[in-house]
Amino acid sequence: MKDEIQALRESLAAMDLLPPGGGFTAQALSGGVSCDVWRVDRGGLAPIVLKRALPKLRVAADWRAPPERAAAEVAWLKLAADIRPGAVPKVLGEDRQRHVFAMEYLPAESYPVWKAELADGEIDTAFAAVVGTALARIHAATAGRDDLKAAFANDAQFHALRLEPYLLFTADKHPALAPAIRAEAERIAAARIGLMQGDISPKNILHGADGPVFLDAETACYGDPAFDVAFCMNHFLLKAAWHPDWAPDYARAFDAMRAAYLSGIAWEKPHELDRRIARLLPMLFLARVDGKSPVEYLTDEGDIAYVRAAAIQMIVEPPANLAVLAEAYFPLAAMR
To answer: What is the pTM of this model?
Structure first.
């Protein structure tokens, strides 16, 4: 712990964030599997958050990614703040040498995590729509920009953090589906449509009074915005399998986010993006039970088997769009 505190002190000093006298305390926060996160209190100054990218992620499988991704996260946070003020925490400093950066601390009592709300049955359809609107605005502002293609050419990071652990690892477990899943992974890797945040998940979205606040952008890469939408909407499917009684509510939230997002598409034909999201979504659905990062709340073998069977069916017979997918999935999930 002493060495850890010294490392934090060095980062705070590098970012000119040490308080007068140099005293501070650090409390480890839940940082998921990919990073260390601390709340740092500095005497009478406002608390801040320090985040450090890990070279090896905390999962059972051997999952590694370059820690330089911390710089990509800082770049995305700054860009998103310009596009939609208030949509992300403010970046306060960056220590690239140690792959650490600092951002403002947002208290849980004012910024609850959307994942926790969804898990508790607090399914706010209006908020789901606002998430879709905010995400579309960020995507619209980044689509077709050569400067961002160069600035966020983080293909190796995106492969290590998303394509390999979610799609390619899952493909290896399902030889019959492997050609379709690998083809989709290759398509996403080659796409240069807009900026993907890469981790748009309810666990990384805070429910602020003025709208969503997005966290954890270390997977930011220029590619296909369809990935962000599918990655997020996947959680409505997963939670409907977990809580069948609330499936109709998750379905309404799914539809609200879908409609709001698609109404904000200006860089291409909405129906084409809708189709891509609907094709990718079942693959990510399957990845959350058979990939390197299985969703932690699905522990019942019956629930896991249900997700696997539903996902396989949709991969074999891809839905034409998100509305068709929802109409086929949610009523059956509610009947379980």
So the answer is: 0.93
